[in-house]
Amino acid sequence: MKEYLYVKLLLYAYPKLGMLEESSRSSAEIKAALSFRTQCDAYTAAVKVADEVLMAERLRALAEAIGEIVEECTEGERFLLEYRYFRRKGELGSFAGKCPVRCTKRTYFRLQEYLLSKMAAKLAARGYTRERVIEEFGEYPPFRRVYRALKEGKERAVVLKRKRQEPGLCQKSSDGETRGFLPRRMSTAMARTARTAAQIATICTGEGETAGEAAGGSSVSPETCFR
């Protein structure tokens, strides 16, 4: 499913898009206000401000597109998205006691694979192909870090570890009773579930960030990053 890594990137980023948009708008205001202190020429300073404003608009449009897609999903699909990617405390907690998905561990991963391909198709229908994601977000440091982790097989590093108390999936046992299982880790996945909510996803950590990345620069081209 490597061809869908960019879709995973967008899904993991979705809960944070509003925060990232606000950050870009604030950065544009700060750069504009302090432009008199910059050592570059006026044109270059203006371009930097414009880039921040443009990124904010791109993040806003992306959030709206994904939000529309989520609204079109079934209750079960929304649960699977919240459970694996979004992990929003309030939204996931609302499913406690009424889990809409009952399946085995194997079926769970098959459902997630199918849902990922479906999300890719719906994103493409709104213009968000892999090529567009590369063009618009390939040099954006928060996205670049997450994509690098996914590409290197470090998906668990993208989000916080789960808690045993959060809502999980329901599995039918041989005696007909409904029992819970919780894939805490993507590889070995299995733990009992209980009542409360999940910790919110964290996608934008600065761990391992270079000085160039912190300044918004990049030593890696978009094509190299998303390849």
The biggest beta sheet is recorded as:
2 strands, antiparallel
End-to-end Cα distance: 14 Å
The number of domains: 1
Extract low-pLDDT stretches. Answer: 170-223
Number of helices: 10
Structural class: mainly alpha
What oligomeric state best describes the polypeptide chains here? single chain
Going across the biggest sheet, name each strand in turn: 1-2
Number of strands: 2
Return the string of H and E elements.
HHHHHHHHEEHH
The level of helicity is 40-55%
Short description:
This protein is mainly alpha-helical and 227 residues long. The protein is built from ten helices and two strands, in the order ααααααααββαα.
Task: Show the helix and strand layout.
Elements lengths: L4 H9 L3 H17 L8 H31 L2 H12 L2 H5 L11 H21 L4 H8 L3 H11 L17 E4 L5 E4 L29 H4 L7 H5 L1
Antiparallel strand pairs: 1-2
